[in-house]
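Quick one: Alkaline shock protein 23 from Clostridium magnum DSM 2767, structure tokens please.
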Amino acid sequence: MIGNIANENGYINYSEDVVANIVGISTMECYGVVGMASKNAKDGLWELIKGESLSKGVRVRSKDNELFIELYIMVQYGTKISVIANNIIQKIRYNVENYTGIKVSSITVNVQGVRV
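--- reply ---
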């Protein structure tokens, strides 16, 4: 379990997959993102993930009920990477904190490639 929230009605436990899916969907909604990137273990190459499993390009860690998110993306050629990364960070922080109620401590965006 990645996050636990307790209130007067009981407990809510979030798994890593739920948070990773929220991050993946939020990332794909941002302009300039072509897809998520996943490392192919046997070849050591990065492959593009479009819609089948967006959580493969996301790593989520939790410590003291705070989230540390790391994601791997591919961007569109001709777009400014710093603007895309800032948009992704703002959107992920807003969506994860509003949907789950868990504080996001840090978000690391790793650009693995540029697609034409």
